[in-house]
Design a protein that fits this description.
3 helices, Jelly Rolls, about 220 residues, single chain, alpha+beta, 10 strands, four-stranded antiparallel sheet, about 20% helix, six-stranded antiparallel sheet
């Protein structure tokens, strides 16, 4: 029997904030109160749609305690992930200095975000505050990652069509739960499918991008 190796794997990390109900309620109220011209991003990506509000990119700098608690959870999980998959100990992680941009989305009926990635960053994250009113609509408001191996579908037959994870050819689609965080490499193409509530409702998420410098080190790509 030979050895099966999952080569070229892509890390997608999920975590759940414990006891998140109170902080999410505070974030929900705060973001809805700032869904206005003073906080809107003025140069939105062309892949954004009507029905989607995107804030300016300074969210993690806001002084509100609910923002600070959510930010600290997101960034602590990111550092934990980086340490695990790079084999960094605590002392090494302390030399890793972060620069970030962060914002919130409020998505109403029909809003979506087309496929895109986040250049000039290494890690991205999405935190779910709420997704309300579209329960039972399977295709609504899904964070969807495109399979990054386009050549894998150049020829398909029944010997390759139904390969199990992590070898499959399809996309990965996630319906986020309140308090759930998803971390992924910034180069990954991803979208959010149209939000289609059956009644009044909206989807509120926080997104952020991160890049790092390590004291005394210069990265050497490909090594």
């Amino acid at each position: 029997m030979g050895t099966l190796t999952p080569a070229f794997a892509v890390p997608i990390y999920t975590a759940q904030m414990p006891d998140c109900s109170a902080v999410n309620a505070q974030l929900r109220q705060l973001f809805l109160s700032r869904e206005n011209a003073d906080y809107v991003r003025h140069d939105p990506y062309p892949v954004a749609s009507q029905g989607l509000f995107e804030s300016r990119f300074d969210l993690f700098d806001w002084p509100e305690p609910c923002v600070a608690k959510m930010r600290d959870f997101c960034l602590s999980q990111l550092y934990q992930l980086i340490g695990e998959i790079n084999g960094y100990d605590t002392q090494t992680l302390q030399r890793l200095h972060l620069a970030q941009e962060s914002w919130f989305h409020i998505t109403r009926h029909g809003g979506y975000f087309g496929y895109h990635n986040h250049p000039m960053h290494s890690w991205s994250g999405v935190y779910c505050v709420c997704q309300e009113g579209d329960e039972g609509v399977d295709s609504s408001g899904l964070l969807t990652f495109m399979n990054p191996h386009p050549a894998s579908t150049m020829y398909m037959d029944m010997a390759s069509l139904r390969m199990k994870s992590p070898y499959g050819n399809g996309s990965v689609a996630l319906r986020l739960q309140p308090g759930q965080l998803v971390l992924f490499p910034s180069w990954m193409l991803h979208e959010v499918t149209a939000f289609l509530p059956k009644q009044e409702g909206f989807r509120i998420t926080v997104a952020f991008n991160a890049r790092f410098m390590m004291v005394g080190e210069t990265p050497a790509p490909g090594r």
